[in-house]
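Before a colleague's protein record goes any further, I have to sign it off. What it holds is a sequence and that sequence's fold in token form. Would you go through it and say whether the fold makes sense for this chain? The record follows directly below this note.
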Amino acid sequence: QVQLVESGGGTVQAGGSLTLSCAASGRTIGNYNMGWFRQAPGKEREFVVAMSRSGARLDYLDSVKGRFTMSRVNAKNTVYLQTNNLKPEDTAVYYCAASRGIRLVRGTNDYDYWGQGTQVTVSS
């Protein structure tokens, strides 16, 4: 069992940046592929980025490529999402998730553990 806790959300103006963190406990995240998702009001939860266990492989949603960067420090049992040049359409609750699968995946059903989320609000 893995417990995930996100932090770092907040309210920023368009063009601003935030660094989201996801701290894990219970088991080492080195055993899992990790992902970030987001959910805006009235919309389904959306894949943002996934990273392999070693960090060597990444898969980004097209609309965040070049603006968001995922990283992981397995020794700290933490993953990060650096968000730059934020846009109002990035406003959502951001969730981190852990997958026991081998492949990098985008479906919410493919992830086994979820955090409670952190709110990101981008004003225009």
Observations:
- The chain is about 0% helix and 50% strand.
- The mean pLDDT is 97.
- Residues 37 and 47 are 5 Å apart (CA to CA).
